[in-house]
Amino acid sequence: MRFDTIVRNGTVVTATDTYRSDIGIANGRITAIAQSLPVEGASKWIDAAGMLVMPGGIDVHTHLDMPFGGTTSADDFESGTIAAAFGGTTTLIDFAIQQKGQSLRQALETWMKKADRKAAIDYAFHCIITDLGDAQLEEMGALIAEGVSSFKLFMAYPGVLMVDDATIFRAMSEAAKYGGLICMHAENGGAIDVIVRRALAEGKRAPKYHALTRPTTAEGEATSRALALAEMAGSPVYIVHLSCNDALEKVREARDRGLPAYAETCPQYLFLSLEKMDAPGFEGAKYVFTPPLREKWHQDKLWQGLAHDALQVVSTDHCPFCFKEQKELGKDDFTKIPNGGPGIEHRLSLVYTGGVHGGRFSPNRFVQLVATAPAKLFGLFPRKGTIAIGSDADLIVLDPNREQVISASTHHMRVDYSMFEGMRVKGVPICVLLRGTTILEGGKFVGKPGNGEFVRRQRYNRV
Ligand SMILES: [Zn+2]
Question: Ligand 1 centroid to 62 CA: how many Å?
Fold first, then answer.
């Protein structure tokens, strides 16, 4: 048996198992898993003694090169995917946004061009629907068959991205027919808009009012409505960036009733809280994203949700805007601050630190949350999201005891601040393989922009 690479002596951790094993890789795939493989048969070997070998991370919520509020997110598909690789993420799913009047296919083509020859890790797209006429409705089945098996709809941002309940219901019914999955941004945009206008009329213009005008009840209400619409349509539903207990309880209740309801949260909601908005001057703008930061007590609820499967996935909602010049667009008016924060690089280390070292769940649950569940829900499994014969050799070697201090001065995202500045994490990927090719080792990115491939996804699978 010939191998291109053997990963030796590591402890393999999947969503279900932990065992000592070597992994043999040929032609980009895992071709052998055995207690001991002969190194003479390999062109290269990686020593993983004392380390954990896990499937590469899958981040199903990123916004690279995305126009928003008169500017564009600071990472493109090159800088963003390189930063992702540093953090152990080997596949991401970004969003192709349909402009009103466009076909869904046009949206997809626009985003395919943005990623082409730039992406350093594998990628796929969800399609954001903003305008669902009969023609676009018909496209949904075809897109699912071609590997774009999920769509995102907004219940917030009226006049820009928001769609009404009828549109959501039609999209869910159509997706259900073909095995697609609908992702929902769940906030009551109508009510929030009224609250925002009132705040502005009262002269409340500082960054913290972004958070104070988006109550948790608005997220709870929309989550509940999304779940009800999905139940009526007989379709699964996936709530994106769930931030608070109000919404979590709705998802848990739906799941307890056996409904195919899923939700993700993001590191910012697990580690940061509303006090960040009180930072002096305009600093709070660094934490202007949607949904906003919540009171600290929600964090424990979210961690419990991750541990007990009320939440299935941790993604990042990576949508970076520089503090200088970009966030500053809203210096005199919080509604003009581009919404989003940088996170693509540190997801795995943060979740490993808080989850595994924090004593909240096992390394296996960690793998489930950052790789296996996202792969299953979004049609990437078993090609990605696990370590098995025939799977892509997307692997990370993680040093569970290595520590790192997160800082904008050392991170690789193209943005001038970090939401987690000064935070110490423990558990860092030290070697990353994409389809068998080493893309990170010795603290250096050794992959190549353009080597990331577009992945045609299968249909949604229950987890
Ligand atoms: Zn987002």
Answer: 6
